[in-house]
Design brief:
Strand content: 15-25%
Strand order of the largest sheet: 2-1-3-4-5-6
Shape: globular
Number of helices: 13
Largest sheet: 6 strands, parallel
CATH class of the largest domain: Alpha Beta
Helix content: 25-40%
Bound molecules: S-adenosyl-L-homocysteine, iron/sulfur cluster, FE3-S4 cluster
CATH architecture of the largest domain: Alpha-Beta Horseshoe
Number of strands: 19
CATH topology of the largest domain: pyruvate-formate lyase- activating enzyme
Number of domains: 3
Length: about 475
């Protein structure tokens, strides 16, 4: 078992060790000295703020960045007028990128007012060479640019940035390394994500993730289980296992282990109350997984199973490697084993070559599966992906029209599906005091539906049986029993 390294015991007169994570602890100690000096100079502590865009992976990465910065002595803040602002970016769709450029203009104005301010950019968008070129050319005020493969190096990078002026750029094309045991600052005391793998090997033809997150790497099961045990010891009730395609977990380990086996071992951890996972690629979802899910009550009855399209021809063009029929058959098998399960999905509208008939196949899947909720996206052309080079891109008006029709139907069904638990009493993990009405608390059912019910802050982090009085569309109003 790894023992935390005490920064006070590190000898900074020695040269930095080469092995990780020791090297980073050395730089945390060194950086802490720099931050301490700066604090004395300014007569006030230094603050930091991290803005996270994109998915759960990025959210978890931001917790790691926060853990390191707090260890270094920066004080956490929500304000972008902090001394160190980091944007952890997403590039899955074009509009995610545009938002970042827009907000950088605003950060520049803040930086002019605070000459000590440092601006850092990291995450998926930084893995695109055109983006970094543009930043180098037109956004010289950015201090630090790093990517998805080297976030563990933050202490080393910040040390450099504090010691020299100008822009530091450190982007790796890919990595086969996984650095464990660095500090993490969790957003919630009672629930946490746990990475089980990094990267993606699927190359769906529209998707940029494999290019910016690199090849698939699975963490060792003993590292994952140990992390979960520690989280549970620290009060965590619910964990979410994270990977772009959790169903292909463990295939490349020296001693291969399936996702279902990992999940079962995690479910065996005492004190852990709930386990979820994201995301499941339909092509790799095994019978073994369905069987394990049906056997362990603490595995949440929820599957996020992105379909992307209902047309077998479009699915083929997307390189998804399943058909409409095989997807529907999979849904039937899941429902037969886990009757109450909530199914959610992602759908892309307007993929190149999508005809009205193809779109109607998607609508048909929506009718047949009846998702509890669905994220619907307008296809966005991502430079470097095979789909971006396809010549039959769909006109904007056509896509918009299909999108509106899909969204209306998806929401209608989601409302009907959500209300099916009305009148039942189910366990809720309380997450927060309600923002609008402080006499209520807000929590989630195991199937991920939100419930508001009378309560107070002392209930946060506990799991309570709640009577689901009334469904209000996508959430419930309940009462304690
Ligand atoms: N690994 C997950 C998804 C990661 S990206 C999976 O395989 O399901 C999250 C969602 O973004 C995808 O499911 C897809 O619906 C959407 N997405 C990805 N690339 C996109 C693009 N170019 N345009 C529109 N939506 C996209
Ligand atoms: Fe993208 Fe497909 Fe990988 Fe998901 S499985 S991240 S959609 S390439
Ligand atoms: Fe976005 Fe990267 Fe996640 S591109 S969706 S933040 S893996």
């Amino acid at each position: 078992m790894f023992n935390e390294i005490n920064l006070d015991e590190i000898d900074l007169t020695e040269s930095p060790p080469s092995e990780e994570p020791r090297r980073q602890y050395y730089f945390m100690a060194k950086c802490r000295e720099l931050v301490r000096k700066k604090k004395e100079e300014l007569g006030r502590p230094l603050s930091f703020c991290i803005e996270t865009f994109g998915c759960q992976m990025n959210a978890r990465d931001s917790e790691k960045l926060r853990g390191i910065l707090e260890e270094i002595g920066y004080i956490k803040s929500d304000s972008e007028s902090s001394d160190f602002v980091i944007y952890n970016t997403c590039t899955v769709r074009e509009n995610a990128n545009l938002r970042v450029y827009g907000r950088l203009g605003y950060l520049h104005a803040l930086k002019k007012k605070n000459p000590h301010m440092m601006i850092g950019l990291c995450g998926c968008m930084m893995q695109e060479p055109e983006v970094v070129e543009k930043l180098k050319k037109s956004y010289r005020f950015v201090n630090l640019i790093f990517g998805t493969h080297n976030i563990y190096k933050l202490a080393e990078l910040v040390t450099e940035a504090l010691e020299q002026d100008g822009m530091i750029v450190d982007i790796w094309k890919d990595t086969d390394q996984i650095v464990e045991n660095l500090p993490i600052d969790r957003k919630y005391p009672f629930k946490s994500g746990v990475n089980i793998m990094f990267g993606c090997n699927n190359f769906c033809s529209y998707c940029i993730v494999p290019y910016v997150r690199g090849r698939e790497r699975s963490r060792l099961p003993e590292e994952i289980l140990e992390e979960i045990r520690r989280l549970v010891d620290d009060g965590v009730k619910e964990i979410m296992l994270l990977g772009q395609n959790v169903n292909s977990y463990g295939r490349n380990l020296a001693q291969p282990l399936s996702f279902a086996e990992l999940l079962e071992q995690a479910a065996g951890i005492d004190g852990l109350e709930r386990i979820r996972f994201m995301t499941s690629h339909p092509k790799d979802l095994s019978e073994e997984l369905i069987e394990v899910m049906s056997r362990y009550p603490k595995i949440c009855p929820h599957l996020h199973l992105p379909v992307q399209s209902g047309s077998t021809e479009i699915l083929r063009q997307m390189n998804r490697r399943y058909t409409k029929e095989s997807y529907l058959a999979l849904v039937d098998r899941i429902r037969a084993s886990i009757p109450d399960i909530s199914l959610t999905t992602d759908i892309i509208v307007g993929f190149p070559g999508e005809t009205e008939e193809d779109f109607m196949e998607t609508m048909d899947v929506v009718e047949k599966v009846r998702y509890d909720s669905a994220f619907t996206f307008i296809y966005s052309k991502r430079t470097g992906t095979p789909a971006a080079a396809m010549d039959n891109q769909i006109p904007e008006e056509v896509v918009k029209d299909r999108f509106d029709r899909l969204l209306a139907r998806v929401q209608e069904i989601a409302r009907e599906q959500s209300s099916r638990f009305e009148g039942r009493t189910m366990d809720v993990l309380v997450e927060a005091v309600n923002e609008q009405d402080s006499s209520l608390v807000t929590g989630r059912l195991a199937n991920n539906l939100v419930v508001h019910f009378p309560g107070d802050a002392s209930m946060i982090g506990t799991i309570l049986p709640v009577h689901l009085d009334c469904c209000k569309g996508f959430y419930y109003i309940g009462s304690t029993v």
